[in-house]
TrEMBL record:
Residues 143-396 form the EAL domain. InterPro entries: CheY-like_superfamily (IPR011006), Cyclic-di-GMP_PDE-like (IPR050706), EAL_dom (IPR001633), EAL_sf (IPR035919), Sig_transdc_resp-reg_receiver (IPR001789). Residues 5-126 form the Response regulatory domain. It holds the Pfam family EAL. CDD domains: EAL. GO terms for biological process: phosphorelay signal transduction system. Keywords: Phosphoprotein. It comes from Pseudomonas vranovensis. This is Histidine kinase. GO terms for molecular function: cyclic-guanylate-specific phosphodiesterase activity.
Length: 406
């Protein structure tokens, strides 16, 4: 295992020694230890940033939440593993809080921790891309914040689209999701979390959405499935855009401009407050659905009124977020939520897309519940259009390639 620097916060001497030995057994020898939150802070101030902090929650005096907040504020840990004997619901809630604070959470361990579970989480840190949000944002932060709204608008040519495949359980590619990136001339490829606040602050979120839609449809027209049909694409749409009277007309115009059938486009809508459609706007959305355009409710279960919105709008698909899927194989509560969503979807005649499939355990747990469409790092990471075409060609059976050339 690549050389890692790890901090353990644990006030029980035997548990501390056991964790230290588990890390050594996994090839991690740069291990910092602390028996209190103050001790952890002092150690970090002396020894500097760590790759992973393993944080116990139950402590005498300040509990582990104090250290988690300190790590989020200081950026002194690239990733976090939560350790506790608390019930699973508490661990999940702490993990959600840590993510809201901007920390990268690898997972949680219930005491007594075992070496196999710890190894899996350590591998997740090495195998999955990304650093802490703070580490990603800091070098870009100052330069981006210095840009005026006009300069942000002028950077439109640098907004590029990457595509993440969606596959069925037979491995066949059924479509892709279009995800925006900013190819900055000096900062490199930026993820949405690094520049979305700037885009929103400049009032350019709709401009960005239309740009991504246009690029995605152009790619759909060029890339083809085995049957020669345009590659289905899913595009995220800001909910406020649905309230525009000309929204449906603009989508239809874009489809005609690229000669892409409506059935190849899925509009993914994230639930937010204050997005109410009047009868004309709803009629426009229904026209799109009648023509074959798909409508997906993204991050299902994360919004405050997903169920109500699901009944109000003509959705054809619901998308389960990674928060429900990650670690589902070891969490019966998450498995119950996903199973319930799949049952509801079948009864409502909705397709289901499960995102965030990151491990073979996640995949097998999903398979046990049904056969939804899947996307996630275990299948493929988002990639540029030319890389996606190469990826699809490599997966395409030889006989299919011969048919395409015939």
């Amino acid at each position: 295992m690549r050389s890692l620097k790890v901090l353990i916060l644990e006030d029980h001497p035997f548990q501390l020694m056991a964790l230290h030995q588990m890390l050594n057994a996994n090839g991690v020898f740069d291990v910092l230890t602390a028996e209190s939150v103050d001790g952890a802070r002092q150690t970090l101030s002396r020894r500097g940033r760590v790759d992973i902090a393993i944080c116990d929650l139950h402590m005498d005096g300040q509990d582990g939440l104090e250290l988690i907040r300190h790590l989020a504020d200081s950026g002194l840990a690239a990733a976090l593993i939560i350790l506790s004997s608390a019930e699973r619901g508490v661990l999940d809630s702490v993990a959600d809080l840590a993510r809201q604070l901007g920390l990268r959470v690898l997972g949680s361990l219930q005491k007594p921790a075992c070496s196999v579970s710890l190894h899996k989480l350590m591998r997740r840190y090495l195998d999955e891309p990304g650093d802490s949000p703070q580490a990603l944002a800091v070098p870009a932060h100052a330069e981006l914040l210095a840009m005026s709204p006009a300069e942000v608008a002028q950077s439109k040519a640098q907004w590029v689209v990457h595509y993440q495949p969606k596959v069925g359980f037979d491995g066949a590619v059924v479509g892709v999701e279009a995800l925006v990136r900013w190819q900055h001339p000096s900062l490199g490829l930026l993820n949405p979390g690094q520049f979305f606040p700037l885009i929103e602050g400049a009032g350019l979120l709709e401009t960005l959405s239309w740009h991504v839609l246009d690029q995605a449809l152009a790619f759909s027209a060029q890339a083809r499935l085995d049957n020669g049909q345009p590659l289905p694409v899913a595009v995220n749409i800001a909910p406020l855009m649905l309230t525009r009277d000309d929204f449906a007309a603009q989508v239809v115009a874009a489809l005609k401009r690229h000669d892409v059938p409506a059935s190849a486009l899925t509009l993914e809508v994230i639930e937010t407050h204050g997005c109410q459609l009047d009868s004309n706007q709803l009629e426009g959305l229904l026209h799109l659905r009648i023509q074959g355009c798909q409508l997906s409710i993204d991050d299902f279960g994360m919004g405050v009124s997903n169920l109500q919105r699901l009944l109000e709008l003509p959705f054809s698909e619901l998308k389960l977020p990674s928060e429900f899927v990650r670690g589902m194989a070891d969490d019966g509560r998450k498995a119950a939520v996903v199973a319930g969503a799949l049952i509801m979807a079948r009864r409502m005649d909705l397709k289901v897309v499960v995102e965030g499939v990151e491990t073979v355990d996640d995949l097998m747990a999903i398979k046990a519940l049904g056969s939804p469409i899947m996307q996630g790092y275990f299948i493929a990471r988002p990639m540029a259009g030319q890389d996606l075409r190469r990826w699809m060609l490599e997966r395409e059976p030889a006989e299919a390639r011969l048919r395409r050339r015939a």
